[in-house]
Amino acid sequence: MSTWTDDELSRIERADELRIAPLRRDGSPRSPIPIWVVREGDELYVRSFRGRGGAWFRTAQSRHEGHISAGGVDRDVTFVDEADPAVNERIDSAYRTKYRSYSDAYVDPMVADPARGSTLRLVPR
After folding, report:
1. Which of 30, 45, 63, 74 is the most exposed place for a label (fewest CB within 10 A)?
2. CATH code of the domain in which 59 resides
3. Residue 1 lies in a domain
4. Does the pTM of the predicted model rise above 0.85?
5. Residue ranges making up the domain that contains 101
């Protein structure tokens, strides 16, 4: 697997939203949808607002591959489940910091248990 460049990390981190298109079981991409993305160190993370039941998340779990675009960066990625509580605490903080200008009605669900259970690390391919 490859790694993110500093430029890619910075550009995606500055983007308000990321467009994600997970691959279906047959290898075809799902239509891209906008979601929030955060950076923690040299890694990028996303969560499903609806938790593990979210449609795009369920599709992502079928092949663990897809395509993302944000900040002028387009990459094929692998989705890696993130269950480490310490990492999830830092991701919570990143969501609160990056999206603090949004209503708590949007931010609070992103740091609640259902969304935390859908945390995925984006690994470039």
Report:
1. 74
2. 2.30.110.10
3. no
4. yes
5. 6-124
